[in-house]
Amino acid sequence: MNKSATIIGVMLLSPAFSVSHAQDAEAVANIRCLIVGAQLSKSPDATRRSVGMMEVMYYLGRLEKHLQMSDLEALIERESSKMTATELAAEAVRCGTILAEKGQLLQRIGNSLVLRDQEQGDKKSKPSQ
């Protein structure tokens, strides 16, 4: 293969590698959050257990559309065995921030829907002129 063909081949494969690598990094980040949620769900504190279960469900949903269950199990095992207590604490902050942002988004959507329903109710109850 000549040099220009090699360069073109590398250029064509680079975006695919970048996307694949980004997806892998995203999957690992989501798995780490799933692990944090699983740890929190074992807490004696009811609030922490509830947050942990929400994290597990949210991150499992993000992961299951991209990974086979057997891959997921292997990745959870691999990541959990590598995570130190310091990393677990740092990931808890990162993952909790993401989950809180999603919760705020859902709250804004809910408020908007309630407001829209109220406005529609007001329009229906006003007599037409």
Structure in words:
The structure is a single chain. By secondary structure, the chain is mainly alpha-helical. The chain has one domain. Helices cover 87% and strands 0% of the residues. It contains four helices and no strands. Helix 1 (3-40) packs across helix 3 (69-82) and helix 1 crosses helix 4 (85-125). The N and C termini lie far apart (81 Å). Mean pLDDT is 83; it is low at 8-19.
Low-confidence stretches: 8-19
Summed up, the domain count is 1
As a percent range, the share of helical residues equals over 70%
The major β-sheet equals: none
Treating each run of at least 4 consecutive H or I residues as one helix, how many helices?
A: 4
Strand content: under 5%
Structural class: mainly alpha
Oligomer category:
single chain
Task: State mean pLDDT (0 to 100 scale).
Answer: 83
Strands, count: 0
Task: State the end-to-end distance.
Answer: 81 Å
Shape: elongated
Radius of gyration: 23 Å
SSE pattern, N- to C-terminal: HHHH
